[in-house]
Design brief:
Layout lengths: L4 E4 L5 H17 L18 E8 L2 E12 L2 E9 L8 H15 L4 E7 L5 H9 L3 E2 L12 E7 L4
Length: 157
């Protein structure tokens, strides 16, 4: 597994924007439009979101963002490994970074929404591996045959 360098970054950087475009295109291919909750790059630059990128040398390996819901709760957004880095620990590296950042902020709860269909199963398995489990709906999300809400309580002791 590579040693990824993770940095707070600008989602409008060309290589990052290209990965976000791929992410959005796949979300629309795999889910009904009303179930696509991925944020466009411009939204990922707003004050309530911190966007991160993971790098393998000069190569973009993965992206992810942490959205503040309130002072004690956060949400994972735009988690995505570059196609050539799937299965190589890049997604896990950015997920671990986001969890650590949430803990450093003092969050006690971290949530996410992902898809239920087959293309999302690897992502859901990664989240489960890191302590997330299905939870009730939060925000504007509704769990159904296309979407699932997951969460994890954070130990900040």
């Amino acid at each position: 597994m590579a040693d990824y360098r993770i940095v707070a970054d600008d989602p409008l950087r060309p290589e990052i924007s290209a990965l976000l475009d791929l992410h959005l295109a796949e979300m629309y291919r795999w889910s009904p439009a009303c179930k696509v909750h991925a944020m466009p790059a411009e939204r990922l630059r707003e004050a309530d979101v911190t966007f991160y990128s993971a790098w393998d040398g000069d190569n973009l390996a993965a992206i992810g963002a942490l959205k503040q819901l309130d002072p004690s709760r956060g949400e994972l957004k735009s988690m995505r490994a570059a196609p050539e880095y799937r299965g190589k620990g890049a997604g896990q590296a950015i997920l671990r970074h986001l969890i650590a950042e949430a803990k450093a902020r003092g969050y006690t709860w971290l949530g996410l929404e992902t898809g239920r269909p087959e293309p999302f199963r690897a992502a859901a398995a990664l989240y489960r591996k890191h302590g997330f489990s299905e939870c009730g709906n939060f925000g504007d999300y509704v769990s159904d045959e296309f979407s699932v809400c997951m969460s994890r309580d954070l130990d900040n002791g």
